[in-house]
């Protein structure tokens, strides 16, 4: 599913392309489901072009069956059900993935659920636990608590014994966030999240902020951080520029960092997948964590899926059922 020019959700059109051929380290996956993520929307609008060499087709996470493999890939991967992080191409019947960016779908997990995991899992693991150095006993503040990222961050953080504070835009979403394990869910439309964080932490602040808003949220986030706290930015939905007090940063020894994942090297993402396989994936294999699912749309209805994403009504992950899925 592609488009001729960037634009609104109605620009998508079906297109027929040759089935892609595997490179030496790649597998070809017959796609069952593809996850829908905010970066897909940003790409469709023309603001997030694929990195060099990546497919122009949107879609950063998929699930399905491996039907072919490159010369450097173990033959036993053919026929396996996997989910994978991809740099593009997910909104299609067949997609390429680096073999080491795949995770085997656990017994008892549906392919629909599996497609809702890789993008958020890789993003949260890297930014909360690697860049944010989160550890047992810390308190984490997550904005967008009922988004795909927010739900994943909440569940992973609770599994590793962190306290979690989330923000959301309605009482209904706050209730859903608390059901997932959030210790405090703040309705940012009716409450001052800075004051609520201070009250909850008895003035100490949080160890880590996972920020998807940026803009004028950054200064407020810094006021939520404890001494030596870490501010990790993964999106700039509220604007790319922020004005902050550097004396506050210095006096409280704060760390400001952030990342994007899509353009990172294959080797980096392979190493990240290895760490996830050893530390986080067992939580999915034993059923302790399952993705929060919102609506499923047929691939032909991708416009409706993007409209739901942009409306902000979803709780958890939106996925596309691909032909044959």
Distance between the termini: 15 Å
Which architecture of the largest domain would the CATH scheme give at its second level? Answer: Alpha-Beta Complex
Order of helices and strands: EHEEEEHHEHEHEHEHEHEHHEHE
Low-confidence parts, pLDDT < 50 over ≥5 residues?
A: none
Give the biggest sheet.
Answer: 7 strands, mixed
CA radius of gyration is: 19 Å
Residue fraction in strands: 15-25%
* DSSP, total strands: 13
Keywords: NADP, Oxidoreductase
Domain Enoyl reductase (ER): 7-320
Organism: Qipengyuania atrilutea
Protein name: NAD(P)H-quinone oxidoreductase
Structure description:
The protein has 325 residues and is α/β, with parallel strands linked by helices. It folds into 2 domains: 9-117 and 262-321, Quinone Oxidoreductase, Chain A, domain 1, CATH 3.90.180; 121-258, NAD(P)-binding Rossmann-like Domain (Rossmann fold). Helices cover 30% and strands 24% of the residues. It has 11 helices and 13 strands. The chain has helices at residues 38-44, 111-115, 118-131, 148-159, 171-179, 193-200, 217-224, 246-251, 266-279, 281-285, 302-311; strands spanning 26-36, 61-69, 81-85, 94-98, 102-104, 139-142, 163-168, 184-187, 206-211, 225-233, 255-258, 293-298, 317-321. Strands 1, 2, 3, 4, 5, 12 and 13 form a 7-stranded mixed sheet that branches. It has a 6-stranded parallel sheet with strand order 8-7-6-9-10-11, sandwiched between helices. Helix 3 crosses helix 4 and helix 3 (118-131) packs across helix 9. It is globular and about 60 Å long. The mean pLDDT is 96.
């Amino acid at each position: 599913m592609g488009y001729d020019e960037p634009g609104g959700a109605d620009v998508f059109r079906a297109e027929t392309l040759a089935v892609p051929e595997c490179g030496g380290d790649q597998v070809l996956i017959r796609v069952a489901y593809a996850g829908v993520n905010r970066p897909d929307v940003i790409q469709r609008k023309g603001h997030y072009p694929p990195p060099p060499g990546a497919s122009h087709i949107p879609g950063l996470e998929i699930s399905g069956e491996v039907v072919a493999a490159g010369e450097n890939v173990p033959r036993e991967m053919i026929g396996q059900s996997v989910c994978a992080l991809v740099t593009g191409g997910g909104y299609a019947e067949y997609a390429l993935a680096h073999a080491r960016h795949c995770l085997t779908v656990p017994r008892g997990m549906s392919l629909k659920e599996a497609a809702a995991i890789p993008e958020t899992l890789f993003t949260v693991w890297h930014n909360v636990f690697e860049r944010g150095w989160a550890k047992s006993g810390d308190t984490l503040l997550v904005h967008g608590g009922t988004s795909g990222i927010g739900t994943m961050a909440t569940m992973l953080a609770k599994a590793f014994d962190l306290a979690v504070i989330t923000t959301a835009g309605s009482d209904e979403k706050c209730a859903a966030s608390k059901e997932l394990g959030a210790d405090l869910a703040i309705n940012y439309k009716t409450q001052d999240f800075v004051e609520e964080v201070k009250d909850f932490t008895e003035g100490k602040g949080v160890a880590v902020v996972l920020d998807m808003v940026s803009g004028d949220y950054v200064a407020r986030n810094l006021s939520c951080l404890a001494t030596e706290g870490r501010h990790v930015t993964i999106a700039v939905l509220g604007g790319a520029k922020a004005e902050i007090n550097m004396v506050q940063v210095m006096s409280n020894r704060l760390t400001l960092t952030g990342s994007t994942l899509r353009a990172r090297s294959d080797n980096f993402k392979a190493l990240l997948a290895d760490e996830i396989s050893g530390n986080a994936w067992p939580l999915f294999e034993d059923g302790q964590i399952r993705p929060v699912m919102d609506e499923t749309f047929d691939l032909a209805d991708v416009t409706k899926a993007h409209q739901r994403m942009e409306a902000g009504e979803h709780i958890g992950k939106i996925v596309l059922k691909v032909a044959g899925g």
